[in-house]
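tl;dr need the bound structure. longer version: we got a ligand (manganese (II) ion) that a collaborator sent over and nobodys looked at where it sits. i said id run it. heres the input, straight from their email, havent touched it
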Amino acid sequence: MNLEDVKVVKELLSTPQHIVIVPHKNPDGDAIGSTLALYHYLKGLGLEAVVISQNDYPKFLKWMPGSETIVNFEWDMTSARTLIEKATLIFTLDFNHLSRVDKMQPFLEEASATFIMIDHHQEPSDYAKVTYSDTNIGSTCEMVYNLIEAMGDLNKISNDIANCLYTGIMTDTGSFKFPSTTSKTHRVVADLIDKGAKNTEIHNRVYDTNTPDRLHLLGCALKNMVILEEYRTAYITLSQEELDTHNFKKGDTEGFVNYGLTLKGICFAVIFIENKEEKIIKISLRSEGNFSVNQYARKHFQGGGHVNAAGGKSNLSLRETTDYFESTLVKYKDDLILSCGQKGSL
Ligand SMILES: [Mn+2]
């Protein structure tokens, strides 16, 4: 974080403020972890703050300290709108474009508050007075740690802050596995453990939450996996009917896409999930190496994200979507083989 920005944030936080902190829609561990950590930090400074989430978030994050204070925009629109109108300072965390908060977007656009963005996605838009954007950092939680460090406040990291930040760093780095995991990341989590983060407990609470339905759905997804060795690619489909058979609940398919990458010689993995209600196919894309699924998703599937993790959608049928997907691969063949270089062959 540059010194000029730190100075601006310090100045803003040295006067009383009505602060609203916003994660992106469908918040994940990093979004909830970073917003709640910042919430606890600001409260600790004696400031008034509240987290407003566009919609609900997974049960496996509800143990997080402060989670009971989160205002759900969908459920409590009147108080959420009042809080946004009254806000003097709005932090937007783990996203960089206001369209990522969906129905909250017009209210944020109308707000008179000063905006501060902390985020690690590509191509930030220009709505904030302070834009702390760094695509090299694996999680927004690590960036919130950097902010607290730059403020000279590492000694103010409480148990609660440590547990929130640890959760987001763990989930966004794939448990410290992705290339965005640096020695600094490990130094940060080491410090967080020293400051009270319960690493084993967090891991259990976030990951060991399977239901029989979810495991059976995973079995179905893995059975459906198509492996295109020539293109170093594996993809999974799940139809609405298959989801219904396994009593699909939101979040059940989280992480399924990554199984493709556990195959030797595969460095591009995709999952296509039919959503009859929204009449779209939801798509998650992952890669290893320098094949950019962000660019690929932008070009072919109305989406985007990071180099190695992105999302998108298709308005075609499931079958038409995968046919189109397969037809695009030819021109990426060389890139995929190159990207896969170090992984060996199947
Ligand atoms: Mn993130």
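gonna send this back to them w/ a short note. The radius of gyration is 20 Å.
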